[in-house]
Design brief:
The protein is mostly helical and 104 residues long. The protein has one domain. 16% of the residues are buried. Keywords: Membrane, Transmembrane, Transmembrane helix. It is a multi-pass membrane protein. This is DUF202 domain-containing protein. It is found in: Endomembrane system. Pfam families: DUF202.
């Protein structure tokens, strides 16, 4: 019987977790700034952005703790499309900010 190994004994999972936390924080701050504007479009867009930031932070937290506690042979929790989601959100956020700036 072979002993169980941790998926990655180094600091890479922690660095990835911290990077996703920074990404979620930056998206959340931008969403909060959008909520400051008085238009319905900007507040709605800001609330959706804040919700996505919370989901990204939660998924990063879950992923980090699943990689720390499961052996290599186990099935690791994946964040399906997290990179594509955050990229699409950043593009939409940029378009939304420009739209809010042009309508204000």
């Amino acid at each position: 019987m072979t002993p169980e190994r941790v998926a990655d004994p180094g600091l890479q999972p922690e660095r990835t977790f911290l990077a996703w936390q920074r990404t979620a924080l930056a998206i959340g701050v931008n969403g909060a700034l959008l909520c400051r504007n008085a238009t319905v479009f900007s507040v709605l867009f800001g609330v959706v952005t804040l919700a996505v930031a919370v989901v990204l932070a939660w998924a990063a937290h879950r992923r980090y703790h699943s990689t720390r506690s499961r052996p290599v042979s186990g099935i690791l929790l994946r964040i399906p499309g997290a990179a594509a989601l955050s990229t699409a959100l950043c593009v939409c956020l940029g378009v939304g900010v420009v739209a809010v700036a042009l309508t204000s």
